Amino acid sequence: MRIGTSIGLIALGLILALAVRIDLGGIDLELIGWILTIVGVIGLVASVVLARQARPVVRREAEYPPPHTHPPDPRYPDPRY
């Protein structure tokens, strides 16, 4: 569940729990609203915790100029000097 879905569940749950006053005979919309709100809050907390976890950082340290694998050719001067 992502952050947007969690916020949507919280909003829908609070609307059902606090604003809707319809009797459906056997279905308690207020209870369903509170359940959706609690699930949304748990999902929001889990999403934020997972989003804030440290990610591994990969650093590449290249040598410039690259090391020589063979001796330099004496006919050409070294451009580094």
Automatic annotation (TrEMBL):
Which chain regions cross the lipid bilayer? 31-51
Instruction: Report any Pfam family annotated for this entry.
Output: DUF6458
Cited InterPro entries:
DUF6458
- Which ranges are annotated Basic and acidic residues under compositional bias? 70-81
Where is each DUF6458 domain found?
3-55
- Output the superkingdom of the source species: Bacteria
Q: Using the UniProt annotation, give all residue ranges assigned to the region (Disordered).
A: 61-81
- Entry protein name: DUF6458 domain-containing protein
The organism is Pseudonocardia adelaidensis
Q: For this UniProt record, give its keywords in alphabetical order, as a comma-separated list.
A: Membrane, Transmembrane, Transmembrane helix
Signal peptide feature range: none
- Highest classification ranks of the organism: Bacteria, Bacillati, Actinomycetota, Actinomycetes, Pseudonocardiales
